[in-house]
């Protein structure tokens, strides 16, 4: 099988245009390079260079092999870089679980900075709902999470947290739905409409129906995009993150019903969370620092 060294010789000869210059660039003798090229041609059963002209030129077959050799060398270099990175005690991947009501845009520069600093580490972002993000940290399935979850809903492992920012959920409905209710002032008047709820991707609210009114019809969905679509079509009502629905509110596609017995807006804080009993690696530590720096 061809070796990496043979591919390096092929690359040098093509780039330099002559065996003499290639030999100088590789600190090898010209006969050594001639032998390497002939051995490579013999192993492949192909003639890589045309030797009829004064200057070495690749044959058609040689051009294709040269392309693949460059790709192989790039992969080989990447392998060596990643191996060096991992041998230095760095993580192969770091997972950040994010509760889906949190807006990612403000923290994207932090991800960009960490990825530039640790390009060999794979950063995984997992969107979860309600207690799901914290639960992944508790189960050691994520190094970090961003979540607004009340600690009482996530008992067990001791956690370390740092406040990041505040968020807001807004109760909305479509003009089509509200038109069915002339003088709307109580949530009880909506009991025959469907309240659209997002399912908890964790187990912290198992057996609980958070924010669901007594005798209220309701549907469960597994993401905010589906919830938004159903609400915009007048098929139900419910709370959505303010950042997600600003445009719909401005354009009048969604309205905020003001009810006497159900708050239109709910504000809460998001925190950056990790296990307090762990020993985070260099990348997880740097990601924590970068995200903490976005607090405000």
Automatic annotation (TrEMBL):
Report the transmembrane regions from the record. none
Is Lyase included in the keywords of this UniProt record?
A: no
The UniProt entry, under Gene3D superfamilies, shows: 3.40.190.290, Winged helix-like DNA-binding domain superfamily/Winged helix DNA-binding domain
Q: Where is the HTH lysR-type domain?
A: 2-59
Assigned keywords, A-Z: DNA-binding, Transcription, Transcription regulation
| A matching Pfam family | HTH_1
Give the record's family classification. Answer: Belongs to the LysR transcriptional regulatory family.
Write down what this protein is called: Glycine cleavage system transcriptional activator
User: What is the source species?
Assistant: Shewanella khirikhana
